[in-house]
Structures are given as structure tokens and as C-alpha cells.
Write a structure and sequence with these properties.
Blueprint (H helix, E strand, L loop, with lengths): L18 E2 L11 E5 H12 L4 H8 L3 H21 L2 E5 L4
Parallel strand pairs: 2-3
Antiparallel strand pairs: 1-3
Helix pairs in contact: 1-2, 1-3, 2-3
Length: about 100
């Protein structure tokens, strides 16, 4: 049985800065957390734009439950990076 094909997500913003790291630490010595483009968009919509999950899911063209899993994973990655001094790399198609 094959897994279900992943739906294309609608991304309404492109990250200008693709790497964030703790100050005063060389990037080559840091562990990296990769934030996928759809996770970045989920953070932007819900935390920056202040939309509800259903609105975010509609804008991204995914179900609310998929959005919920996406935002949960994104927030966990960001918390890990902040609490453990890791760099965050935003994985975009342009990379």
C-alpha cells in the first residue's frame, strides 16, 4: 500500500533571511534545525497574522488537522532551537 500523495501547499511569503542563529557562536559549530517552508508559512499565518487554524488551513490549501500537525511540529522545532542554542535553517525551494 502506497502512502497518500502529499498535497501542494500554498505559500504566501518567501523568507528573506533563511538562517537564524545564537549571537556570538560560529554557525559551523552549531547543530541545525531545519524548518520546512510549509512550517514557516504556518508560523507566519497563525502567530504573526493572528488567524485561526481553519483560516490558516484554507489559505494553505490543506485540512485543519494537517495544519494542526504542521504548526505543532514547527513550534516544537523553534522551541528546541531557542532552548538548546541551535541554528534555524528555513528550507525553501530557492536553496
Amino acid at each position: 500500500m502506497r502512502p497518500r500523495r502529499r498535497l501542494k501547499r500554498h505559500i504566501g511569503f518567501s523568507a528573506e533571511h533563511r538562517c537564524f542563529k545564537p549571537c556570538g557562536v560560529r554557525n559551523s559549530t552549531l547543530e541545525q534545525i531545519v524548518l520546512e517552508e510549509d512550517e514557516f508559512e504556518a508560523i507566519r499565518l497563525i502567530d504573526y497574522e493572528g488567524l485561526y487554524q481553519q483560516e490558516c488551513a484554507q489559505k494553505m490549501g490543506i485540512s485543519r488537522t494537517t495544519f494542526s500537525r504542521t504548526i505543532e511540529g514547527a513550534r516544537k522545532k523553534i522551541a528546541d532551537a531557542l532552548l538548546n542554542g541551535k541554528s534555524i535553517i528555513i528550507n525553501t525551494k530557492e536553496l
